[in-house]
Amino acid sequence: MNERLFIGGEWAEPDLGHYPVTDPATEETVGLAPEASPEQVRAACAAAREAFGSWSRTRPGERAALLGRAAEIIRARLVPYADLARAETGATTATARALQVGVAAARFRRYAREEPAEWPVPPQVNEAGPMGGAAVVSALAVRQPVGVVTCVTSYNNPWANSAGKIAPALAMGNTVVVKPAPQDPLCVYRMAEALEEAGVPRGVLNVVSGRATAVGEAAVASPDVDMVSFTGSTAVGRRIAEVCGRHMKRQLMELGGKGAALVFADADLSSAVAGIGTTFSFYSGQICTAPTRVLAQRPVYDRLVEQLAAYADRLTIGDPRDPATVVGPLISAEHRARVESYVELGRKEGAVVAAGGARPALEKGFYVSPTLLADCTSDMRVAREEIFGPVVCVIPFDDEDEGVALAGDCDYGLVDYVWSADVPRAFRVARRLRAGGVGINTVARNMEAPFGGFGQSGVGRDVGVYALHAYSEVQAIVWPG
């Protein structure tokens, strides 16, 4: 089926035709995605601008009810939506159901409740002066919608990532233009259908896609856009930030990561191996929060490398539709070549390939074997740059100060991890790490905790109530009394 754009409440034929979306496991065509022209993207932004006035004035309860209906529609279609997600992204069936479509439904449900949008500020007693006589001045802080928000989403999780932007933005009264990743946009059009069925007014949600950089550039640069929310690479984030800076647009940036996992000598190694091992399997390492840079204290270094290598070697690689599969393919042939080039670079830099390192013997699909690079040093490119694949580097350290220094010897600062049985030390180390989040003896997430990065890993925070803050402006209302 030829997909259509969603602009101003209408399903529109794309000016520039369609392009094939490829299943990374079978290399077959999943469907045909629309190629929008820059003019169509600007039309979507204009439709969002026109719809903003009335949508921003709707009661928060009405907006919440719409998001709740969308959540139920998505839940009811979990299986077909997850089948499409699996075909587009290469995620396993279990991952597509629970962590893509399931999380998307949960995020719509999360924002289908009213949150306080205003709160009192303590009154202030002003003495007489040039601004008037002595008086008590009261104030109220009010959260107002930003306006039109362009959401540029990532390819690794089109359902959860898009829902995490759309739901809080709409809940706050913003209107939205979504530009999905070109590799897997079909899921986002299914999300638009669910919202349309839930009753989203014309122009409040718009979806435009395309492979050309002009599509994203038009969605970011449009004068109708007030804010850009982006998830993706740091390099693209910098270009978007330049445009936002020139035009004073608000921005929310969730960028790259090179998560450091500090494993101390007293750590539960089985827990550390299981947590770090998710890098090998979860989205085939295509996740910015992955603990890809393992810092192992010397007394446990050899054992940790041995256990991580054994973990990687016993993972089942193959068809994501097979329930036995743990590791699926990467998103594209181009990305596979990039990941493989990093593994070869690691060899040249002196790293020891302790597991993986070769392409699995499968006839089709963009697969890479889970790879462990041992005996790395902090100056190696494989230990500094985001690979975004099932590749883990291990670096030894001696004491706490050296471990913290090595963790900070990186441009990124999204999520780091600490494994230690010494709880006071674990929390002490966590506070010393320059990262937006730190997991202590776990890779789990708390979906009400703020999420975002330090340094080259991003700007701003979202998730939970923090997402409502991200998609709003604060207005002060002051009066005498």
Automatic annotation (TrEMBL):
Organism: Streptomyces malaysiense
A GO molecular-function annotation: oxidoreductase activity, acting on the aldehyde or oxo group of donors, NAD or NADP as acceptor
Keywords: Oxidoreductase
Pfam families in the cross-refs: Aldedh
PANTHER family on file: ALDEHYDE DEHYDROGENASE-RELATED
Boundaries of every Aldehyde dehydrogenase domain copy: 11-477
Highest taxon listed in the record's lineage: Bacteria
Gene3D superfamilies hit by this protein: Aldehyde Dehydrogenase, Chain A, domain 1, Aldehyde Dehydrogenase, Chain A, domain 2
ATP-binding among keywords: no
Name this protein carries in UniProt: Aldehyde dehydrogenase
The family this protein is said to belong to: Belongs to the aldehyde dehydrogenase family.
